[in-house]
């Protein structure tokens, strides 16, 4: 069995190594900020050989992209509560929890950094944001189909997500439930 | 005359070196992203010795902080047009021009990165933001004194500045005059 086939096998050693390498990246971003560590340092922290990382991801940039995509896609699935206000409040609360959690700032900073790290990061960041905007738009479309008056996804981005991201990035937290609900209520 | 006294003398060689080093930092952030270059690379690009940078700024982090503070303070002074709508539209247009200009993304990314680079950057970033919020609040206070109904500075941050920053950071520009005016009108 080739190395590549092993890497694709779900579960087992490959999955454990993947999880450990991802956690090492998240920890290093938290401690040092984006860009201030090498593949060798990720490998040492994860307890794997440098060559394992290069074989599986190819470069530090590709690894960082993979971490950001995995984290941001795995978290905050789109809610379906039956009302637009319920959906948006739940969604906003999920995002707030995700970006103020222990790894939250690291993940937000990584998502931001992806827009400025060469073509691969740029494309990955654009794909990630386009996918999230599509999911968000589906949630808003469901509300419209129920006869509710709904903003578009860019309105949610500008007036619910952007304020939360900027307050986290600028260290102006915490995002209290009242603050987050207020952003949603103001938009609706 | 000691090196330190020379560095403090306004104009002349010291000012030219300062400007060249600042431009080198801005260029390197634009090309490679924050964190992906060394003091040696800044020095080579600016045409000065590494030791000149260490003597004047002490560290790469202190240099980056100085660049961000200088750029963000020099740009977009607070307008005083006589009406709140005029002030906010002018202010928002200035910020939009600043962050979508040739070095804009680099400066925004640097401001964001400062919140995650050790104590010195953290404090510098916090000082910078506090000073801008004070300037903004003064503009809003003038409107209140004229009898206008004004939002607070956090409302401007959340609903005018944050959407523009996030759209630039996520590469979702351009910020058209209609879009920027729309953010202000919506807030008022």
From TrEMBL, chains A, B:
Pfam families: TetR_C_11, TetR_N. InterPro entries: Homeodomain-like_sf, HTH-type_TetR-like_transc_reg, HTH_TetR, Tet_transcr_reg_TetR-rel_C_sf, TetR_C. Residues 38-57 bind DNA. PROSITE patterns: HTH_TETR_2. Residues 15-75 form the HTH tetR-type domain. Keywords: DNA-binding, Transcription, Transcription regulation. It comes from the Bacteria. This is TetR/AcrR family transcriptional regulator. It comes from Kitasatospora aburaviensis.
